[in-house]
Amino acid sequence: MNDDRRIRRSKNMIETSIIKLLKTKKINQITVKELCEISDVNRGTFYNHYLDVYDLMTKIENNLVKELELALSKYSPQQINKDALPLFKEVLTFIDQKADIVTILFRDNEDSLFLNKIINLFKKRAIYSWGKNYNCFNSKNYDYFLEYAIHGCLGIINKWLKDGRKDNPDNLAELLENVVMNGTDFLKMR
Q1: What's residue 184's pLDDT?
Q2: Local confidence band at 118 (pLDDT 50, 70, 90 cut-offs)
Q3: What is the pTM (predicted TM-score) of this model?
Q4: Which of 42, 43, 79, 110 falls 20 to 30 Å from 73 in CA-CA distance?
């Protein structure tokens, strides 16, 4: 049990340290040596858990996506179509709680596949939900709508992060819901 706690502590220190470093540097400028010095762990401990800093970032990204996927899985397509606001609030609360790392991953960072992972997660959820509701899985308009809705939401969230999250997450969730749910009328015009 103490070993588990030490492992979690070491990983947490390493993850916290890379987030701190990524606020001022790109990932390709960060060395394992520097990361270990800041996180106060030895290189052996680092290499017990990660191959390199890129592997560390991939694991952080994958864990975030899994956590978000778990949060989204609480909502059925029927619930989303009836009232998407709780889903948007859940997403924004998640992002708000993880703002340091999400802000870093959202910025124009060619070293991160995080946005693509998030886009694919939202597409998977939306395709099932809206495609079923509007019976338009193979519609070209549906593909366009998905791109509009997902990238529009990510753009709004990115602006919110860049602006320092000054707007209330609940108000922003209402905005996202209005943008997306009122935009679904586009799907009816096949």
Answers
A1: 61
A2: confident
A3: 0.81
A4: 110
Please give, one letter per residue, the 3-state secondary structure of the chain: CHHHHHHHHHHHHHHHHHHHHHCCCCHHHCCHHHHHHHHCCCHHHHHHHCCCHHHHHHHHHHHHHHHHHHHHCCCCHHHHHHCCHHHHHHHHHHHHHCHHHHHHHHCCCCCCCHHHHHHHHHHHHHHHHHHHHHCCCCCHHHHHHHHHHHHHHHHHHHHHHHCCCCCCHHHHHHHHHHHHHHHCHHHHCC
Please state whether 165 falls in left (phi above 0), alpha (psi between -120 and 50) or beta.
left
